[in-house]
């Protein structure tokens, strides 16, 4: 849920945790319910009969339930709100995304990379594509089971305790099942990264990182679903406070993620005193970007990949470089940080968080609109039924998959603008091209991604595209073309 802007796209560059579906899914999946019209739950040791909303004149909490026309009216209201919010999201994304950055010529990998480098990139892409697509396929299949069958309800129907306990346990159980199915694919992908020298983790460290990532995902998801079910138990038009809550939770998570969650995975130290630190801080001051410090992440304990990123906003904004990047020539490091300063200056993390928060609110309203149909297929009594956790998680997974290509399209344009900022700030296209070549070769970037992979996974322009833009900038600004 945190918005973060990276120098290099992990799906193209192999960041040790490549952002393909084979390793780390964006959103965990969930489960449906067990096909019964009414069921008996145990809450605090008391057997409670749960009814479908609108059945027998009252809902699961004993409140007067809406009749059929009332339910239809509520869904129409939510549908209108959904359309209006969708238009707001399109407008915000449209006005904050730089759709035309700088026209450039066609990318030409053969001009800047040797035949051996191109062949290595193609071989790496071929090796990782199969586990990636298998993982994507499993993701879709499992989400379908949770949304269209009683599988999830049957599994979670065995859980005991108060409703809030069963919601939390439901998140844990479904997350564990999904990960158990996908774990062999994660091992396969990690083995490929090791074979190509991108990962240097041992299996204990790899397992620890993966479990911590799952723990963070499960924790955030449990908080969200607890709030959702609590609201649905209290308020008929629960989509209104749920949308507000989803917006606030997304913003809050993005704000605290750099200082609360990122330290779980890396140790961060202040860049040591020296010419590089001095030049970076001076460049930030010249750029008009307030940066008190540049942090170094100990990425070398798990990967050989090069990267830098900016995360957080306001008081938690930070620019981070991998310690592996510090082995590059100083001018190239400065150019990488100039790219990150572009993200900071244009408030890309803040605007990305805003769009993400609006998207989360949109999802909460959409859940109200579509859950009636899903409930009938999965057999849960209502969204207040703790067994509905699985169906909600499945819907979230589908939503994430559907929005992924649009998010990548926006991200590629934002990354191109940050590249342009780096060129304007440094006026050094030759170093920019050298840096892009170093990143591409070290991270084994896909130099000629096919259209499907580009749409599904590429959050950054390809390295040849970025190099072509640098040459266009050089021509436009009367600088020797690299």
TrEMBL record:
Domain CAAX prenyl protease 1 N-terminal: 138-266
Cofactor(s) it depends on: Zn(2+)
Biased composition (Low complexity): 13-26
Record bears the keyword Signal: no
Residue stretches spanning the membrane: 78-99, 133-151, 163-185, 214-232, 239-261, 349-374
Domain of life of the source: Bacteria
Biased composition (Basic and acidic residues): 46-71
Key words, A-Z: Hydrolase, Membrane, Metal-binding, Metalloprotease, Protease, Transmembrane, Transmembrane helix, Zinc
Domain Peptidase M48 residue range list: 272-473
Keyword Electron transport: no
Residue ranges, annotated region (Disordered): 1-71
PANTHER family for this protein: CAAX PRENYL PROTEASE 1 (PTHR10120)
Protein name: M48 family metallopeptidase
